[in-house]
Design brief:
The chain has about 425 residues and is of the alpha/beta class. The chain is built from twelve helices and ten strands. The strands form four sheets. A three-stranded antiparallel beta sheet has the order 1-2-3, with no helix packed on it. The radius of gyration is 29 Å and the shape is flat. The termini are far apart.
Length: about 425
């Protein structure tokens, strides 16, 4: 009688590899034999790889994880190389190496730089914090663009000695936006990549990847700074070339992302296509149609896609309406007593009033309803009643097709809704608070 025990290594059933076979035989005389599989190098390589990729890779992450990480690490590498050039210029402007420079003067200038960055981060969070989740792709690009601008300020600071503090503080302010936007969007993307509730593991392994990229970038940056020292043209050529590559790598990284959450833009693309064809686009198809550049680059928008979400105003403040609009609102509230939202067209914009007791599904429904209303008005000057009829017939079907195509329909990613309304019905009069 014999027993065979196999030793396997790996954290996922798709990545297991046999490392040894142990055979025990007791037929005539007891014998034990061990046969090892694979070389020692293969075992070491697998152990090293485990420090840089999530457990269970690749089945534990989404398909867009690898291409995004490759481009993200390349853009990070270019950032670390340029950091050496900008830091060298900044220290030179502060007076490092100059006999006339004072410690207290350099310390005060550095303190102002850091203080400006801290205040800038707080202000940016106050004004744009709620929008980072819903527009993660765009803010990811904006974050790195602001980082490029901050580095540029550091590099030009020696050229303006009389305005050095102002230039350096502007650079720090720009980088503070980067810190907030980059950190917040990275958290949202980590949740997207995690297929097995392994966001912490993905974040930890990304830290290992970033460490290697940082060390490599620092080494190359020091070498480049050493070579170009005293040659302004070489410094500027290197900095601008690396900046162009950095922007390209960021754009490619963001383009690789295939997000399945519903934000305003993706909802608009999906709804318009569904109303025209009766079919739902896949996340991959919508990813190729999304406008990911900042909003002020309107000329980059795909011409054949007329997005409706720009005509929406979600969470309107009731007191901002004029007398006539309030009368229309009161009439609408009286006609839809159980509604958790109200729609009203004003100067080409669909205003959405959200009930104070509405849920996330109600907010999603209100936005889809507003998109339907805008689409029908665009085609045949339709009324609210026709859009309501469309919602009654097709809304549940639309959500069902979205879910079967891989979309998350639990909520709408949007800016925080800080203004809500409550309609109360008395014995004779309708009242809106």
């Amino acid at each position: 009688m014999g027993v065979i025990i196999e030793e396997w290594n790996g954290s996922s059933s798709t990545r297991f590899s046999k490392t040894a076979t142990i055979t025990f035989s007791s037929s005539s005389s007891l014998s034990l034999s061990i046969q090892r599989s694979g070389g020692r190098f293969d075992h070491v390589w697998r152990r090293v790889l485990q420090a840089f990729v999530p457990e269970g890779f690749p089945s534990s992450v989404t398909p867009d994880y690898v291409p995004f990480q490759v481009w993200d690490l390349l853009q990070g590498l270019s950032t670390y190389i340029r950091t050496m050039l900008s830091t060298q210029a900044l220290l030179s402007a502060i007076g490092v190496g100059e006999k006339s420079a004072t410690v207290i003067g350099a310390t005060f200038q550095w303190f102002l730089r850091d203080l400006t960055g801290m205040l800038g981060g707080i202000l940016f969070t106050f004004y744009q914090g709620s929008d980072l989740d819903s527009n993660a792709k765009m803010w990811r690009l904006v974050a790195d663009l602001m980082n490029d601008l901050g580095m540029l300020m550091d590099l030009v600071s020696p050229l303006f000695p009389s305005a050095f503090v102002v230039v350096v503080c502007l650079g720090s302010l720009s980088r503070s936006f980067t810190g907030v936007a980059s950190g917040a969007t990275r958290a949202a993307l980590t949740q997207h990549f995690a297929l097995q509730s392994n966001a912490a593991d993905i974040s930890a392994k990304e830290g290992s990847q970033e460490t290697v990229a940082t060390m490599t970038g620092m080494a190359l940056g020091m070498l480049l700074a050493r070579i170009t020292i005293g040659h302004p043209l070489a410094i500027w050529f290197s900095f601008l070339s690396l900046t162009m590559f950095h922007m390209y790598a960021n754009y490619r990284a963001v383009r690789c992302l295939v997000l399945t959450s519903l934000n305003m833009q993706r909802s608009s693309i999906l709804l318009q296509h569904f109303m025209e064809t009766g079919q739902v686009l896949s996340p991959e198809q919508v990813s190729g149609m999304e406008h990911i550049l900042p909003r002020w680059t309107n000329f980059w928008r795909t011409k054949h896609v007329k997005l409706l979400h720009s005509r929406m105003c979600l969470g309107v403040r009731v007191s901002s309406l004029d007398h006539q609009e309030l009368m229309e609102l009161l009439h609408s509230a009286g006609s839809h007593k159980k509604a958790k939202y109200l729609l009203m067209e004003r100067k080409g914009t669909i205003n959405i009033l959200i009930h104070k007791n509405s849920t996330t599904s109600d907010v999603l429904q209100s936005f889809i309803h507003a998109l339907v209303m805008a689409k029908l008005m665009e085609e045949n000057n339709s009324t609210y009643l026709e859009s309501q009829s469309w919602m009654d017939k097709h809304y549940e079907l639309f959500l069902g097709k979205l879910s079967s195509s891989g979309w998350k329909t639990e909520r709408l990613l949007s800016q925080s809704i800080i203004w809500r309304a409550n309609w109360i019905y008395g014995p004779s009069d309708d009242k809106v608070d």
